[in-house]
Inverse folding.
């Protein structure tokens, strides 16, 4: 078994690591994990917990670090000013976007000092773009977050969770103003972004905008995401462009998802648990990502620390060490050899867990769902956002629309 923990050393930058061929392990999902723990509200999914419950954010960062993460992303997902005041959200008025972003940076930097981890400041898609605001207006939103990241001296920047490559390009162009490396990930599948731009072309646009690392995050499971990354890789090769590849998919099985991803599933967001990937699924994902040439490997929604540990354990031979969290976790269940029951002791081997097909325990449940598939995107009247809370009448109209769609979608 590889030694636990890596040798402490001066921290190298993200591009130094990737250029040297090192494997960089990202962290996991924050909004889903903290919603389950009672610190994030589903719907807005905004990160005010960095101010209201800093101990919860700090502990989750610490657990990802202990599990093997080399990068701690600031908990600034959906932390743009327009999102913090969208549809009745109180955060902009009560706290301000600046304070949320500052607190998130401080917590991530504090925990990163406990290990060999880099801090990445992150921005994501905005209500302003979905409402068809101008490029200048959208970039001004990103720039407010960038001012905080610059002040807090984060190690690099990530533009993540973009359904439209156009907005992601605007984000990359804005983040490049800071003079530090920029990564960009889209929440798209093999069909491309919501305006039909295919993954290969998306990757080319992102690199031409200045991104040094490109890839996908969220919305789809590892199998689908790696198909998308393969198309991105092929697109970059055809254009004779070079960039490092980055993968941070869901920890949910989503073979039935359409173009919009898991937010279309009727189980989103409160009944996704039957779809959770096992740690052994993550071993397979990590190996397949590595074989594809991906060197920045992490996760998004659904990824808990034990999933990140599985990435670190699968790639321990290449990295030369195991994470601290492996002190209590034997290779492929080897610790089960200490169990009192002989049939459980018999499971202390790789062949057992590698070939297991887990049962759901839900005899009346279908294996797949019928996604909502409304098919709306930026430019559609239904996606125009508002500061006021959603009214009861608006909700009634949505219920009627949903019932109609459910009865007509094949």
């Amino acid at each position: 078994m590889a030694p636990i923990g890596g040798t402490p050393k001066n921290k190298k930058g993200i591009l130094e690591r990737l250029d040297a061929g090192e494997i960089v392990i990202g962290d996991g999902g924050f909004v889903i994990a903290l919603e389950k723990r009672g610190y994030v509200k589903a719907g807005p999914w905004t990160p005010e917990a960095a101010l209201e419950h800093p101990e919860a954010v700090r502990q989750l960062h610490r657990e990802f670090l202990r599990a093997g993460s080399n990068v701690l992303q600031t908990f600034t997902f959906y932390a743009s000013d327009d999102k913090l005041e969208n549809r009745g959200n109180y955060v902009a008025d009560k706290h301000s976007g600046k304070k949320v972003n500052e607190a998130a940076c401080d917590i991530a930097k504090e925990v990163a000092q406990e290990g060999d981890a880099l801090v990445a400041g992150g921005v994501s898609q905005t209500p302003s773009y979905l409402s068809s605001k101008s490029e200048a207006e959208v970039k001004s939103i990103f720039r407010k977050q960038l001012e905080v990241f610059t002040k807090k001296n984060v190690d690099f920047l990530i533009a993540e969770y973009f359904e439209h490559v156009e907005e992601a390009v605007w984000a990359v162009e804005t983040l490049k103003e800071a003079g530090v490396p920029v990564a960009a990930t889209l929440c798209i599948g093999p069909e491309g972004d919501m305006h039909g731009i295919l993954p290969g072309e998306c990757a080319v646009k992102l690199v031409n905008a200045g991104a040094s690392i490109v890839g996908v995050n969220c919305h789809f499971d590892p199998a689908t995401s790696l198909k998308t990354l393969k198309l991105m890789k092929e697109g970059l090769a055809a254009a004779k462009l070079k960039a490092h590849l980055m993968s941070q998919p869901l920890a949910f099985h989503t073979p039935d998802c359409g173009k919009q991803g898991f937010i279309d599933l009727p189980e989103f967001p409160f009944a996704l648990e039957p779809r959770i990937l096992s740690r052994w699924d993550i071993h397979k994902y990590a190996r397949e990502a590595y074989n594809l040439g991906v060197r920045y490997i992490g996760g998004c929604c659904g990824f808990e620390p034990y999933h990140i540990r599985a990435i670190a354990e699968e790639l321990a031979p290449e990295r030369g060490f195991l994470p601290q969290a492996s002190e209590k976790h034997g290779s492929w269940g080897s610790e089960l050899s200490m169990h009192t029951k002989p049939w459980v002791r018999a499971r202390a081997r790789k062949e057992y867990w590698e070939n297991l097909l887990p049962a759901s325990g839900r005899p009346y449940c279908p294996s797949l769902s019928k996604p909502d598939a409304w098919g709306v995107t930026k430019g559609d009247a239904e996606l125009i956002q508002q500061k006021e809370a959603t009214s009861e009448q608006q909700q009634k109209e949505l219920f009627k629309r949903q019932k109609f769609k459910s009865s007509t979608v094949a």
The first strand starts at residue 24 and ends at 25. Residues 14-331 form a domain with the TIM Barrel fold (CATH 3.20.20.330). The chain has a mean pLDDT of 94. The first helix runs from residue 14 to 19.
